[in-house]
Write a structure and sequence with these properties.
Distance between the termini: 89 Å
Helix content: 25-40%
Order of helices and strands: EEEEEEEEEHEEEEHEEEEHHHH
Strand content: 15-25%
Number of helices: 6
């Protein structure tokens, strides 16, 4: 009526009981991690337990799992899979932080764990209306790179940078060119605004935590999203629906994460891998990335110029207040030209930055919709949009002069 686990270090000549910290329950299974020597897992009649020191001490790893009889467990890659007496199984995804815990961290104020190497996988390819939240269903692993860190005490300021790919940085000898994402505890939440869906479908937004304890932050393996009101797909997931994509995926490769807490930085590296089911060559994926990035950059430039035009027209409106008739006529001509650069009616042959923005968005969505090679039409469309951008920018510069 109490636990019994024995270990031997000499091929069975002598044995030692290792049960310190275990409850008074029968132990049904013990496994050692194949990656980290001395990392043990045990299943009892009520919970799962872990030992970081080859069984000298045990502690609960139950987390949110209900009390149930653990009959077997296996370690598959970076996941711990539990089989219960009730025929169900539970998976603890990503045990890489457990593999890195050791006594040297005991007095470390900040720990940045080496992340699990993430796969660039399309997390939800379902295209229909959502499954009702009452429907019993499992939960997929997070759709991104899981970056775990630990703070021994509350800090004032914290930031996280993700930089890469390292091969490109080394080739260009320039770090600044490849800065992908920067996060901090002073980031502001984007405004959801008016959406025609209940908010319980929407994924909660992330802010880097400065509080004491263990934290997990998710990098979605994309560039910084555009600063526009978010929209959401019809294929929603209860409490976990991300906004529609506005920034391209990054390329597979090695990346660096830099965590800075109260001025002290820790650095680690991880590798973004491609979904192994995707057979598109690296060359074609790079082409898809480059074309998508041109559309993404084009949209950003359009948005900046549209804001410039808005301010320009406000300035003209202010000048019109007390303008002489001849001057007012000239100001109205300028305003008309600016308005036509801002937007043109649907079906008009004249281009505008508003229509160009929509064009970049349409081609971007087509490029990023799958991991297939870009079509000839996509390639030609990006070329045409870039040419239109050059023409419109010249018109805008001439008008400002």
């Amino acid at each position: 009526m109490r636990p019994h686990i024995y270990k031997t270090n000499d091929g069975g000549k002598t044995w030692k009981e290792i049960v310190n910290g275990l409850p008074n329950d029968p132990i049904n299974v013990v496994r050692e991690d194949a990656v980290q020597k001395g990392l043990l897992f045990a299943g009892s009649e009520r919970a799962v337990y872990v030992s970081f020191d080859d069984g000298e001490n045990w502690q609960s790893l139950r987390l949110n799992m209900p009390a149930t009889s653990i009959r077997d467990l296996v370690i598959k890659d970076d996941d711990l899979v539990i089989g219960t007496h009730g025929r169900s199984f539970w998976i603890l995804d990503n045990i890489t932080p457990l593999r890195q815990l050791n006594s040297k961290f005991a007095n470390t104020p900040t720990i940045l764990y080496k992340p699990q190497n993430p796969y660039r996988v399309r997390w939800n390819t379902y295209t229909d209306t959502p499954v009702p939240q009452e429907e019993a269903a499992g939960e997929n692993p997070p759709d991104g790179a899981m970056i775990d860190y630990y703070l021994s005490k509350k800090v004032r300021d914290i930031s996280l940078q993700v930089i890469g790919p390292i091969a490109e940085i080394k080739a260009n000898f320039y770090w600044g060119k490849s800065l992908f994402r920067t996060y901090s505890n002073i980031d502001t939440m984007y405004k959801i605004g008016e959406v025609n869906i209940p908010h319980y479908w929407i994924r909660p937004q992330q802010i880097l935590s400065t509080e004491q304890g263990h934290h997990r932050f998710l990098w979605d393996m994309k560039y910084t999203p555009l600063n526009i009101p978010p929209s959401y797909p019809i294929s929603a997931t209860y409490m976990n629906t991300a906004p529609d994509q506005t920034a391209p995926w990054v390329m597979p490769g090695d990346y660096v994460a830099i965590l800075t807490a109260d001025g002290k930085s820790d650095t680690t590296m991880f590798t973004v891998k491609m979904d192994p089911r995707v057979k598109t060559s690296a060359t074609k994926l790079q082409q898809q990335h480059d074309l998508s990035f041109q559309c993404y950059s084009g949209r950003k430039e359009c948005m900046n110029i549209l804001e410039e035009i808005r301010l320009y027209r406000l300035q003209l409106k202010g000048q019109l207040t007390n303008a002489a008739p001849a001057v007012a006529d000239e100001l109205n001509k300028k305003d008309k030209a600016a308005r036509e650069l801002e937007s043109t009616p649907f079906g008009s042959a004249e281009q505008s930055f508003g229509r160009l923005n929509s064009g970049f968005a349409s081609v971007f969505n087509a490029l990023q919709d799958s991991d297939m090679p870009p079509t000839t039409q996509m390639i030609n469309s990006v070329k045409e949009l870039n040419q239109q951008m050059t023409t419109l920018k010249k018109k805008w510069e001439d008008l400002k002069k």
